[in-house]
Amino acid sequence: MRTEILPIDEKSLRLSKSIIDGGGAVAFPTETVYGLGANAFDNTAVEKVFAIKGRPNDNPLIVHVHKDYDLSELVTEIPEYAQALAKAYLPGPLTMVYKSRGKVCPAVSCGLDTLAVRVPLHDGAQKFLKYLNLPIAAPSANISKHVSPVTAQHVFFDLDGRIELILDGGKCSGGIESTVLDCTGEKPVILRSGLVTREMIEAVAGSCGEYVLKEGEKARSPGMKYKHYSPSCDTKLFRFDELEKAVDEYNKSRSKGVEAYVLCDDKTAELVNVDNVLNLGKTGEQIASNLYDKLREGERCAQLIIAIAPEEHGGVMKGVMNRLIKACGN
Ligand code: AMP
Ligand code: MG
Predict the structure, then answer these.
(1) Beta strand pairing status for 179-182 and 94-100?
(2) 123 to each of 111, 126, 317, 325, how far by Cα in Å?
(3) Which residue from 3, 8, 2, 38 is spatially nearest to 20, judged by alpha carbons?
(4) Residues with CB under 6 A from ligand 1
(5) Of 28, 100, 195, 285, which one has the fewest beta carbons inside 10 Å?
(6) CB of 31 within 8 A of CB of 172?
(7) Is the pTM of this model over 0.90?
(8) What are the pLDDT digits (tens) for 253-270?
């Protein structure tokens, strides 16, 4: 199968529709990462998405809808706090989990009675979803467990020959996956941190819990138990207060002939002052936006990525740290 990369216009949208209507999958941009979408009413098409990615079949997908889609067709019980959060942050990088009406096919939620729904902000994603006027089940458009794609070229690298079409909407601005929020209880509970932060949720909903997976427990968000986002080269992660240890590791590796690169934020880059740096930028937003691009650059040029965690840990950095630990954790 030949994989085409096309800009988003009438012609590529028409092609997308014929692929989706024919039970296929199309990669499309969002403001977080690129998604691989299929018709959420078509069980065979959704199962194909799992197969294309090699995704474990107990890790449910997020359904994407356009901003005028009537959510009550897909879910029951939208609590007041969820309505307020939707008003404040949607369209945007926030996925909300509700009780499912059971209308979408069973493969989407892997048999759970809940459904994760997202309304992306990206203009290209909105055009795609509006053109199809269907709920589109979409995980990230990468091979399972590899670094998520934030450009059409990243998708091509992973899925060339496995899908027909990648809609190119440029580099994703957000850079890390959406915040996943359980909205089935009395108060919202964060299942995965992202760009819509706990502080932002508390400001609207009053309170917000955060779910932590305990050893031996069944995961409330199945994706939690899987290693994710890993580059193909070796990685080592150091805390900010282990800076000297990280530099020692870099020097030791280089003297042994290992092509090591330090992955860190701008402030840390000045402090370590080494030749090979993958600089993530200054602010939390910049760091999130550059993280996967730099991890993918790292796997092209480095044999070893020495990641140093930024000093800040609150807000957006919480989501960044979660990804960094999963990508580079020892
Ligand atoms: P990905 O598509 O790779 O960004 O993964 C989607 C994330 O949403 C995974 O961590 C899933 O476990 C989570 N998710 C999807 N549907 C549900 C659901 N119904 N309940 C809880 N978590 C979900
Ligand atoms: Mg993913």
Answers:
(1) parallel
(2) 31, 5, 25, 31
(3) 38
(4) 59-62, 97, 109, 112, 114-116, 139-140, 177, 180, 191-192, 221-223
(5) 285
(6) yes
(7) yes
(8) 999 999 999 999 999 999
